[in-house]
Specification:
With about 120 residues, this protein is an alpha+beta fold. It has three helices and five strands; from the N terminus they run αβββααββ. The structure holds adenosine monophosphate (AMP) and zinc ion.
């Protein structure tokens, strides 16, 4: 089964919906979240469609490693994240996932609290 035709992140990656990519690699791309929850809030997503990080891990381990390496590269390039950052994979509706194309939230530029909301 291929990706859903209306997947927002597939459309952005394909260049068919506006979305400015700030970083790209063989496996992953990064863009700024349209509704930032911290001074720096990036999304890092695999180029191929997988509904969440668990599906990505099961279906394409190389792409998962590419995504995780991408998080490190994107974070290293952001001055704002030098003192730390948070990586979040919302997985499933109850966890707050709203776009069912795997993506890591990379958040920083302010002190983070724990537990998360
Ligand atoms: P989640 O709720 O964990 O699935 O995360 C989806 C994220 O995508 C949310 O934080 C949204 O603000 C973000 N988002 C939705 N549409 C866009 C868009 N066109 N460009 C960038 N980020 C978006
Ligand atoms: Zn997709």
């Amino acid at each position: 089964m291929g990706p859903p035709a209306d997947c927002l992140f597939c459309l952005i990656i394909a260049g068919r919906t506006p979305g400015h990519l700030v970083w790209q690699s063989e496996h992953a791309v990064a863009l700024r979240d349209i509704n930032p929850q911290a001074p720096t809030h990036l999304l890092v997503l695999p180029r191929q469609h997988h509904r969440d990080v668990a599906a990505l891990a099961a279906d394409d381990p190389d792409a998962l490693v590419g995504l995780l390496r991408g998080i490190g590269e994107v974070a290293a390039a952001q001055e704002d994240l030098r003192n730390g950052y948070r990586v979040v994979f919302n997985t499933g509706a109850e966890a707050g996932q709203s776009v069912f194309h795997c993506h890591a939230h990379v958040l920083g530029g302010r002190a983070m609290t724990w537990p998360p909301g």
